[in-house]
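As a warm-up, study this chain.
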Amino acid sequence: MKTFLKLFLTFIFLSLINVSAQSQPYVILISIDGFRWDYVDRGITPNFDYMREHGTSASSLQSCFPTKTFPNHTSIITGLYPEHHGIISNHFKDYFNGKFYSMGDSIESRNAYWYKGEAFWETAERQGITTASYFWPGSEVTLSYKHPTYFKKYDQKKTYKERVDGVIDWMQLPYEKRPHFITSYFEATDTYGHDYGPNSPEVNLAIAQLDSVLGYFFQKLKEINLFDSTNIVVVSDHGMAETSIERTVNIEELLEGYKYESGDNGPFMLIEPWEGKLENVYKKLKENENHFKVYKKEDVPEYFHYSDNPLISKIVIVAENGWGVETNKSFKNLEKYGTKGNHGFDNHWIDMHGIFYAMGPAFKKSYKVGMLNNIDIYPLLCKVFNVAPNPFIDGKLDRIGYILK
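Now compare it with the structure written out below.
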C-alpha cells in the first residue's frame, strides 16, 4: 500500500511539473546587432515580411543614449536607461577605483560589479521560469543568480547555424529542464555596417543572410512542432550611420596641454578633468564647439537620460550626427583602418533606430505600430510570462502592452 501511495504521489508530482512547464509560454528573443530600422525596406527580407504579416511590427525601435551595443542590450533586458543599469558605454573607467570596463575584456565584462540592473532572466528564474542565452551581453556574469540557467560564452566563430541549432536543442530538453525564455544574438549587419557603410552591397548581403537565419529558425521550430506555440521577438540594439574621416574633430589636439582623461570616441566622448581643472577644460571645449556639443554632466539634456550615474564623467561631448570626436590614437586608427559607418549618436536620430518584430500566440496579427522604446521590452516580457517585474525600472508597459492579444 505504501509503495502504491508513493508511486501515485510521484505520478501526481511529475504531472504537475509537466502541466506547469507546458502552460508556460515560449519566447525566443533574437537580437541582430546594428540592424537599422529601414533595412527591411530593401526588398530582400521575405522572412521579416512574413513576420510583419503574421505578427506585430514597429516602424522603428528607439535605442537609449549612447546608441552603443552593450548599453542597449542591457537596457532591453533590464528595462533601465544606461545611467541606471550601469553599463554607460562599451568602454569606460571607474575613476573611484581605477577599474576599466570593456566589452572585449572577458574578465571585466563578466564581472557583476558593473551590472546594477536586474535582467529579465533573473526576474523569470526567481519566479520559476527556466531561461537560457545563446549569447547576449551580460548573460555571462559570473555571479550565479545573475545569469540564466543555460548560457554560452560569446564566440564570434560560432556559425549562425550552430547558434540556431543550439537554441533548438535546448527546446527539446525534458519539460522539467527545458528553458522557456531564450536569447540569441547575431552581429553581421553591425560588422559590415562599420566596415563598408549602411548603404553598401556588403550590408545588403548581411541583411539577406540574417533574414535567412530567421527562416532557418522557422524551419527548425516547425520540425519540433513548436512553431505555432513559440513567440519570436526580433530586435536590434541600434542603427547605423554613414561616417567619414573627413568629418572628425580631434579633441586631444584641441585640448593639448590641458589636464584630463578621456573615454570612448567617435559619436560621443567622456572627459574627466583632473581635480580643479573642470572649468578650464570645459571653457576650452565650449569656445571651440563646432560639429559637437559639450555639456557638464549635470547639464546633459534630460531627454538623453545620461546624468544620474557616478561613473559618467564630468564632461560629456556629443558629436553632430555623422561626425566623430577623436583622440590622436583613434584618429590614427581611422587613417590606418578606415570606417564607413558608426553608431552611438543622439538616440532620437532615426538612423540610430533599430527594429522590433514579434510573432506568436501572445501577439496581435498583422498589427503595425509606430516607434517603440527598447526599455519597454522588459515589462512586455514580464506580461507575456505573467511574472512580477522589478518595480524600479524606467520601462512602461502601457507604452507597449497594446501589441499583445
